Amino acid sequence: GHALAARRTGFPMTGLRFWGIFSTSLWPAGEPALPGRIHIRRALGGPIASILVGVAALLVAWFAGSDGGMLWWLALFAAADNLLLLGLGAFLPLGFTDGSTILHWWKR
Known about the structure:
The protein is mainly α. 59% of the residues lie in helices and 9% in strands. It has a two-stranded antiparallel sheet. Strand 1 and strand 2 form a beta hairpin. The longest helix has 29 residues. The two termini are 23 Å apart.
């Protein structure tokens, strides 16, 4: 999500740095000063993608039905993880989340 959103702004990311189960987007070292709206658009890409994946997983769970066994449980877990943790949870301003980036650039 972040990579696609960044590419669409014209200022793409260069990679990812993984730390445990989390990761950080990497940006070009010589990137010019960008307006806040660019940072916000790039930050929104991740949660939006996670919410879309969560909705898709919810649909899979719905169609599998509760008697779908392992598929139902996996789809339900994927939906909860993407909707709650990676989607909505990303908006919490914890210093390393998209919510912090959005809050930082909101009035700039």
